[in-house]
Design goal:
Subcellular location: Cytoplasm
CATH topology of the largest domain: Rossmann fold
CATH class of the largest domain: Alpha Beta
Number of helices: 8
CATH architecture of the largest domain: 3-Layer(aba) Sandwich
GO molecular function, one term: GTP binding
Helix content: 25-40%
Organism: Pelomonas aquatica
Largest sheet: 6 strands, mixed
Keywords: Cytoplasm, GTP-binding, Hydrolase, Metal-binding, Nucleotide-binding, Ribosome biogenesis, RNA-binding, rRNA-binding, Zinc
Enzyme class: hydrolase
Order of helices and strands: EEEEEEEEHEHEHEHHEEHHH
Number of strands: 13
Structural class: alpha/beta
Radius of gyration: 21 Å
CATH superfamily of the largest domain: P-loop containing nucleotide triphosphate hydrolases
Length: 301
Amino acid sequence: MSRFNALDLGLVVRGHGRHYIVEDSDGRRFVCHPRGKKSDAVVGDQVRFAEASADEGVIEAVEPRRNLLFRQDEWKTKSFAANLDQLLVLVAVEPVFSESQLCRALIAAESAGIRAAIALNKTDLPGTDAARERLAPYRAMGLKMFEVALKADREGSRATLGPWLAEQRTFVLGPSGTGKSTLINLLVQDAQAQVGEISQALNSGRHTTTTTQWYWTDDGRTTALIDSPGFQEFGLRQIDAAELWRWMPDLREHADCRFHNCCHIHEPGCGVRAAVEAGRISASRYRIYGEILEELQRKTW
């Protein structure tokens, strides 16, 4: 008999250093730490844990994951969350979003097998048409797109996003100022209370904006939003340079090339380059592909 059979099964809803908040099947939450020095659990993980007291426990094992969303640069790997159903990339009319960061997030999700959508916020502001134009290639790719004004039209925004979010585990990604906190507070009734309670349990109140946080939006705990801190860079060093194009649907659609190992930069008979020249792949998307490819080709291990 496995030594894990008698252990509780729990969900990691937040982590800070070597301490985690783990929720059991009844909704009870425990402050847990991993046995031993290694700490590899992330928010969204299912873990086997032993109760050490009324509100504390020890993580004995992490259950196998169905996916993991993460970024990797030259120095470190940063895991966002595990076992996700979907990714919502939140961008805004203001501040102007980085298309490179948007591309990178979508590539990371595609390579992890996580479906994604984009929500454009602050569509009540001037400049909405310009933002729509920048997002046109993503709409053309068939990516799910939403338009919301989270502050100006709360009920309309809830009605727009609610059906897509229902009964799913959705990771919300976006730069500072986009409206992630507004979205969380709109859909999670006691969001600030949850943050406060967990921070008090972890004694990490100063770190509430730098930690991935799991929220249930309903009493039945069927719909979850996972919020994460903002970041400046999104490394993709986990991607093989030769496979990069496979994780960009618009490039993949046109990769009917003369050479099977075409990198879509300089080879003759390249279907991707022909599609760019014909306007079937956006010039900006192709430029970003080239920038990321160059980064990946330079990486050393």
